[in-house]
Amino acid sequence: MAQEPKELAAKLQRTLERYRGEKVRGAELARRLEDSLKEASRGRGLERSLEELQQGAPGAEPGAAATAGRGQVARNDLLCLPSQRSTKEVGNIPPDHKDTGEGHHQA
């Protein structure tokens, strides 16, 4: 037998509310997972930096040599990161100075 329109509408409304609730819970779970991944990647970055410091330090612990392979991977990862340029004041350059391009490779 066919359901009455009111019963069908009520059933559809309950299903819709359940779906919306699951969608909200899913979005919250996804946000938490993204936050956890960000924290984990930060931790990995700090771990890599620590390994590099231990390997490059004079008189480093013997355990640092065992992680040399991982240190090379970490160095390669750091080389892939965009560089952060630092500026250093070399001296006073006169305001009318023009760069002639000498010493620079031009394409």
From TrEMBL:
Name of the featured protein: Uncharacterized protein
Biased composition range(s): Basic and acidic residues: 35-51, 95-107
Domain of life: Eukaryota
Residue segments, region Disordered: 35-107
Biased composition annotated in UniProt, kind: Low complexity: 56-71
